[in-house]
Every structure is written in structure tokens, then in C-alpha cells.
Amino acid sequence: MFRFLLKRAALTLPTFFALMFVTFIMIRLVPGDPIEVRRGERGISPERLAELRHAMGLDQPVWKQFFDYVWALLHGDFGISIVSKAPITTEFFTLFPATLELGLCAMLFAICVGVPAGVLAAAKRGSFYDQSMMGAALVGYSMPIFWWGLILILFMSNTLHLTPVSGRVDLIKFYYPPVTGFLLIDSIISGQKGAFLDVVRHLILPTIVLGTVPLGVVARMTRSSMLEVLEEDYVRTARAKGLSAFRVIGLHALRNALIPVVTVIGLQIGSLLAGAVLTETIFSWPGVGHWLVQSIARRDYPALQGGIMLIAGLVVVVNFMIDMLYGFINPRIRHGR
Length: 337
Hints:
Blueprint: H1 2-29, H2 34-37, H3 46-56, H4 62-74, H5 88-123, H6 128-142, H7 145-159, H8 183-190, H9 195-229, H10 233-240, H11 245-282, H12 288-298, H13 301-329, H14 331-334
């Protein structure tokens, strides 16, 4: 098991380095720089411009800027925001609970709907239900997040007036100091009547929008895995013994079919964080994704680089943990079979 852990950990190092390089280069391919963005209509003198560029290291060759960036990361320094002058780690972990809360709710929505839908589709293979569910899953996976979000806002908020359009809570009606950063928990701790329900109402649309893509993936993977397991000899034996369909499918087949589904769920973490950028922008959700979009507009290099690397680190750690769980569930994986 230790050899399996070591092997998986070693594979993450090239991933991190490649991501550092790609992030650094792609950000600098965007026209303009932080100084140009802040010049304004009146502009600043060439001497002051050169002074500011030197202070930020932008007058150095690109290769030297990159190695300085890597050296700082190796020492745990993710930089200082050009706009707020605050450490990147401070800004990131202040906003991250909002993104994490949204991501967890979206994944919970995807699992709670996708797994039962996939199981029933496999149990009723070839039926109208099977075809309609898998068709809906394919449509959900293919829909652009920004389009789906706007459609739900127009229908649920503007037409039916069932949910708020933006934000995490109605700040006019409710205000309480953040304790955990997770408003579902903080609203309960505050003891304010109606605060929890208001937070839930603000979460509904972003959760559906962000969870639709992983829902489609989970449903289709669950169906495929279940169809394979249902053809196994031990399932036929269970049926021959006269066990009920619920016991055969729910107890014997589903447990083994969930092994690849667990892996797919782990791989969807990266998609959730990528989708959170668009989702948070559409719903003005004050999380890491919205912060990164603002950093792009401001050419805040340290915020972009540090934010992306911190997100990448979290994705790699989650995928590493999924690999460990997968190896624990299926011993053949960790023994290289």
C-alpha cells in the first residue's frame, strides 16, 4: 500500500510544475499589464511607469520572472495582491468557504439525483424511462453553464419569483458575523428566524446550474457500471435464489457498480471549480471564481497565479484521496493488477 501511495504522490509533481508554467505563460499572453491598466486617462510619467514596473519585477526577462515565481512558491509565498495589497492566501481562504459551500451542494445534488437515475435506467434498460433519462443527462452535460444559468434566472426569479437572483443572503433582512464562512451553518448559529431558509433559497439556482454537468456524468457512468455488473454470475445467482429485485440491485449490484462512479465523482471536482467561475459570475456569488474573474480584468498577476495554484493544489489533493479510496475499495488497483 505504501508503494502505491508513493507512486501516486510522485505523479503529482510533474502536474504541478506543468500547471505553474502554463499559468504563468498564459496570463502574460493577455494584452496589457497591471501598470497599463492603472494608468487611467491622464496617465503617468515614463519615469514613474518604469519605477512601478521595476518594483513589480515586470522589467525583468520573462524567464527570470518565472524562476522568481517558482522560487517564491517553493517557500510557500503566493504573493501579494496588486489591488488590495493583501496576501493571496488571506484573500483566497476568506472567499473559499463560499465556493466550497456551493461546490459541495452542487455535488450532493448531482449524486442524490444522478445515482438513482442511473440505477433505475440500468434496471429498466431499453425502456422509455431509460432513453429519456439518458437523453436528459446528455443534454444537461452539453448545456453551456452561462446559458443554463440565465434561463433559470428568467424563469425561476423573474417569472415565478421563487428564488433570488444573486448573492448568498439578503443583507437587508439578515446580517450576522461569519463564524465558519459557511452560511448554511452560520445562519443556524445566528438564531435569526428565517435566515437559514433565505440562505437555502439563494443556493437553489447556483446549485442546480453548477451541479447539472456532474449530474449528467454521474448518471451515465452509474448506468454503464450497473449494466456491466448486472451481467455478472453472482447477480444471476442472487436472482436464481429468489432474492427481491431491491436486494439484488441495491445490495449486491450497486455496491460493486459504485467503484468507477467514485472515481468519476473525484474527477468532477476540477469541473466543479472551473464551472464555479462562470456560476459565481452569473449569480454574483462572492467566492473564489468571482474573485479570479475580477483579477483577470485588473491584470492582478499575483492573485491569478496564486489563486489558480491553490485551486489546483486542492484538486490534486482531492484526486489523490480518491485514488487512495479507489485502491482501498479495489485491492487489485493498489497491487497493480
